[in-house]
Amino acid sequence: MQYRWNWTILFVEPYFGWLLAGVKWTLLVAGAAWIVALAVGCVVGVLSTLPSRICRAIASAYVDVFRNIPLLLQLFLWYFVLPELLPAGFGLWIKRDLPMPEYWFSVAGLGCFTAARIAEQVRAGIESIGVGQRMAAAAMGFTTAQTYRYILLPLAARNVLPPLTSEALNIIKNSSLALTVGVLELTGQSRQIEAATFQGIEALTAATVIYVMLTLCVIVGMRAVERRVAIPGTLGRG
Amino acid sequence: MRNLDWSAVVHAWPFLWQGLQTSFVLVALAMAGGMLLGTMIAIVRLSAWRPVAAVAAGYVNGLRSVPLIMVIFWFYLLVPLFIGRPVGAFTSALIAFTLFEAAYYSEIMRAGINGISGGQMAAALAIGMNRMQACRYVVLPQALRRMTPILLTQSIALVQDSSLVYVIGLHDFMTSIGIVANREARLIEFYLFAALVYFAICFSASRVVKRLQRRMAAA
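Above: the input entities. Below: the structure tokens describing the complete assembly.
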């Protein structure tokens, strides 16, 4: 088969603009989902380490459900199924008046999916501190809330930074699944360029290179954060 | 909320079952191929020969920084160009998954090999094995054993990832669900059913892995 190369296609309007729009939507989906994932993930992670048995059961049920269903299917459940199961008025509002439902449902779906994984990291981070700190805090008269606020969470936050980096990378990569519900993020745009010009290799190359650059940016950024917050006197500072 | 009608799911089961079988075959082949290739990559990466090790590292890091969907699209586009004729979604998906998962399996195997104490290798060399034999009969069996739970966990991820062949229209379980869900206009029932099936498979598999881990920790 003959393939006719045409790299300039990437820098011609409208295709260049499509790529930029793709990057924008990838960042918007991944960024917003990251906020959801961090918030929900930290809450669920803390719940799973609390003394209360009910809290731990809720947390482990959350993690089991969100980790054992494929992300693609979870997005479909959010986008196609959830609006039907909600009370009629609310479902109608989502379908009629909510601007860009595909964006919001991708963010919610990707966020809740990643939250389950972050929760596991947070739990491991808290458990790795050891019971000594927890008992010492109790002996000092700290309440459970104070123990978490002043002792456990500040320590755990540093422990989980490296695994959080890989989750941040995952969320950027997984944001590509938003194309299945109609968000034209980077992968979706590269497919569109391919469909419009038949220059598939160029379009996919552009998207691939941009993904690699985005992940590199995240790695560099997270390393900087790790260095900045490292506890003096530990091996992390160096 | 509408009334749910599950009879459509029952009715469509033969079609869905075919999709599920396709998913299983794809996962099993990609798992076998991925582990084999991944182990070879891990050995190459740990070999003393620098340039080759660097190529292997580049392969692993490169594939790990690209979304799986992109990799699937890449192979869907490239394989026919290379071979010169259309090969179908299954072949290109299988190649994409094997090469993609190999990158992840190789990282697990590398950690496993690194975790074997150096004395094992030295002892194997001391009794007259060459490096190849030491690897084959002493190091790899132990690494594989130690990493079995993590390799299986990665394979559970592979089961879930296999649903992504939806984007190239390969008739696996996920795509079959999508097709009948739209044909019967019963999105809720079919997607909930799909969620239940995936959950049952992955949850029970992860329980098995957990049991295995506990047993290995006790031993």
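Note for the figure: The helical segments of chain B are 7-46, 50-64, 68-83, 89-114, 118-126, 131-161, 173-183, 187-218.
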